[in-house]
Structure formats: structure tokens, C-alpha cells
Fold this sequence. Notes:
Largest sheet: none
Order of helices and strands: HHHHH
Strand content: under 5%
Amino acid sequence: MQILRAAVFYFLLVFGAGFLLGIGRVLLIVPMLGERTAELLEMPLMLGVIVAAARWVVRRRFDTRQFSALCVGFIALGLVLVADLAVGIWLRGISAAEVFLNRDPVSGAAYYAALLLFAVMPAILARRRHA
């Protein structure tokens, strides 16, 4: 149960920040610079949020065994994918396939790389903490 709570908290921190940044990106940056550039400009901010949230979760929310940290990250990743699907379908009105497959080749690749980093960041930080 501790792992699930940590994963949900990690997800809420990162998804909440991403949701807020996404609103600003869509309303302010996309009209001026285009979608690809706006998404790429947002990426360093999200990576900072991922590291900060993972660090907070590792320090305060669960034991730092490597396997536990990996579980937290991948459960949180599953929650992000479900949330992306829900936002895409209900807020943006696009199909499930479009949510995951209809992305810009450059910023989409960066997004999926960031998702992978999101999943493994708790384990990376837990390992560093033990070293």
C-alpha cells in the first residue's frame, strides 16, 4: 500500500504541474511559436518537476529499496498514460489512438523519452541515496 500511495502522489505532483504548464503552453506559447517549439520549451521545466517530485517521494514517502522505487515509477507511469488518455478523449475530443500516435515526430519523441525518465527517476534517486 505504501508503494501505491507513493506512486499516486508522484503522479499527482508531476501530472498536476504538467497540466498547469500545458494550459499556459496552449494559451500563450503555441499561438506565438507553434506546437513543436512550445512543447520543446516546456520539456526542461517538466524534467525539473520530475526530478524534484521523485526526490521528494524517495525521501519522504517510502523505503528506498531499488525494486520499490521502480514499482513507484512504473505505477505512476501507468497513471500518466491513463490520465493522458482521459484528457485527450474528454477535453480535446480526440480518439484513443490519436492521443498516443498523433504527435509531432520531434516533440513527441522527447515526450516519450521524458515519460521513460519519469518512470525510472525514483529508482535512479533511490540508488544514488544508497550509494
